[in-house]
From TrEMBL:
Organism of provenance: Ornithinimicrobium kibberense
GO MF terms, alphabetically ordered: transaminase activity
Protein name: Cysteine desulfurase
Reported function: Catalyzes the removal of elemental sulfur and selenium atoms from L-cysteine, L-cystine, L-selenocysteine, and L-selenocystine to produce L-alanine.
EC category name: transferase
Sequence similarity: Belongs to the class-V pyridoxal-phosphate-dependent aminotransferase family. Csd subfamily.
Cofactor(s) recorded in Swiss-Prot or TrEMBL: pyridoxal 5'-phosphate
CDD domains noted in UniProt: SufS_like (cd06453)
Amino acid sequence: MTMGRSTPHAGTAEHASVAPRPFSEGELARIRADFPLLGRTVREGRPLVYLDSGATSQKPRVVLDAEREFYERHNAAVHRGAHQLAEEATEAFEDARETVAGFLGTDAGEIVFTKNGTEGLNLLAYAFSNAAAPGALDGVDEDWAARLRLGPGDEVIVTEMEHHANLVPWQELCRRTGATLRWIGVTDDGHLSDPAEVVGERTRVVALTHVSNVLGTLNDLGPDSPVVAAARRVGALVFVDACQSAPHLDVTALTAPGSGIDALVLTGHKTLGPSGVGVLWARRALLEAMPPFLTGGSMIEVVRMEGSTWAPPPAKFEAGVPMAAQAVGLAAALRYLSGLGLDRVHAHDRMLTGHALAALAERPWVRVLGPADPAERVACVSFVVDEVHPHDVGQVLDDAGVAVRTGHHCAWPLHRRLRVPASTRASFGVYTTPAEIDAWLEALDRVPTIFRTGAA
């Protein structure tokens, strides 16, 4: 069954033979026409300038249609029932898994649907906690069992730029097991410090973000990169939060054989897809060894009153009736992104980021957080304004119809490291235009005058 298939308006036929380029003005207009919400007004009729895609992306009509079609024509409990609707729903759900696998360049048997990226990271962390339970690793290869059992003296490594979703689960894992949490620091210009200073013989897990949701920093996670190479030398598992990178970059290099990456998560709502669905990709051997996170229907093989056995992955990790309509919507979103060409999406992001950074550099009363080179960033710019709290900056922008994020963006330790209480973040999507960047900057220029700062 094929549901919600669509070819986006920006063609991709020639981009493979030429250098990737940003979307043209005409292409952007056609792309924006695919996103119904972008046509609305806010704050007494002002055009909406949506610069909060890092928090959640807007959804193209093809995604809305795919969910609606599922509910209107195929709605039934997946993997249950022998009637036609159940068969259609199951086929649609498994087709969505195949689409996700294609987007990530991997096998559908390695794709676990979750409700978001946070749940995927918790699933990984709880596998280590559950490994300590009696019988949890019965039948598991002893080498894998040893890698999953954590205790005092073992170490879990994160970075100082992590979203709370890739920090708190590991804090809790260490609290439960007695392992030690350590972290790779962040330099003043928004890059990772030398991982060799932290990763050592006792390191069992390295969990880190591909792109910082605050700094926009694109971390090098190639197999020979400092952090991945350091983890491989000591046999540590490497888990990647790709929630900020998957909407903007081709991430298939991370899942390729020999990449040194063992698992990766993404979330639907940041990737032009619905809320309530995410993805955990993990190598098959790891999924086979991991104890389940949730138990109940669908994930079982045999159930007796005395005990139960588990179905093979990915079913082992998908207890209960799954989010079938959302998975179908996510598949439509990933097809849409792929149709645009992720190389062109990235080129568009880089153009927007470069434009924003160059303009902000002309405003000495603005301090940009993170790398100065747009080539080292992906699709967001966080900043602080001299003498003005970020919440007040956000209010001025909102009054002009410009939607941005203010606060610590679920990255409180990073803001402490940068010695700022909070920041304002503008983040971009495939539908963001240079004119919207200019509208944001024009509204931002009102801030010093309104608050009578030294820059006014």
